[in-house]
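User: Quick sanity check before I run a bigger batch. Here is a single chain. Can you write out its predicted 3D structure?
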Amino acid sequence: MTHKVAILGASGYTGAELVRLIALHPSIEIAALAAERKAGQTMAEVFPFLRHLDLPTLCTIDEIDFSQIDLCFCALPHKTSQEVIRALPKDLKIVDLSADFRLSDPAAYKTWYGNDHAAVEMQKEAVYGLTEFYRDDIAGARLVAGTGCNAATGQFALRPLISAGVIDLDEIILDMKCAVSGAGRSLKENILHAELSEGYNAYAIGSTHRHLGEFDQEFSALAGRPVTVQFTPHLIPANRGILATTYVKGDAEKIHQTFAEAYKDEPFIVVLPFGTAPSTHDVRGSNFCHIGVAADRQAGRATVFAALDNLCKGSSGQALQNANLMLGEAETTGLMAPALFP
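Assistant: Done. Predicted structure follows.
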């Protein structure tokens, strides 16, 4: 059976990544590609690396006949996405890649994003899209909210430990290095080559990063009490990748054993040998996440590492993984390609 999908926001990085991944999917056909400002152009004009593919011409959202679409990927900016999704057919399956439906509490959404939600009635319907932990709910969902790429990385590094009670919940420090594509395709001075290359810097410091809302929501629900992590992201001069270095209080070997047990049947999560740290090079362009654990010289403390590709496993690959479940396909379909190296 062939499933027809639409991609809204196809001219952005995550939209292009969806096209790249779906191009090799045996049972999904891209039936519509929307990009409001580039409507009328071909994907070959917008993304020459896709010129060998036979793809629909970019159009506006209003031009799409959604009665012919089985599932819609929404790769639009935050705040825009909720307005568009609210107007889509009520029986249409949707995977949203924006932040608009990640937080289930309208008050929490307003706290982190600064405005009232425009589709509050849909917030409770949305299933959080961290596939490895919500796959049963995702399989039966109509609306799935893809996680933030930073939020996904941090959760892969911490969720099993919180669930198993093997770390001190009041002693979690999360240091994250993030590639520039996570900032999107819009022009910004701080991500110009001359201003980003040959250095890196912390951003959204203190308590201002919006993915903290996801950490608070998910970690507190797991623990059954409030959990707040100390989190600092850093912008690095790389196109793809996130590396999380997490400092925790707990027995390092027990932590490693906890990961090995929690992820033993997960096709996309690779737990490295004890004492080994992952590299973003090893997951670049893939839907894999590598986890490493090392003991600290201080007894009872450990360092946990997680590496993934922010555009793939952190966003578009995760979206396709969720779509596979929603469409009744094998979860790994179209996603088992190895990383790009070098």
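Residues 160 and 262 are 6 Å apart (CA to CA).

User: Great, the batch can go ahead then.
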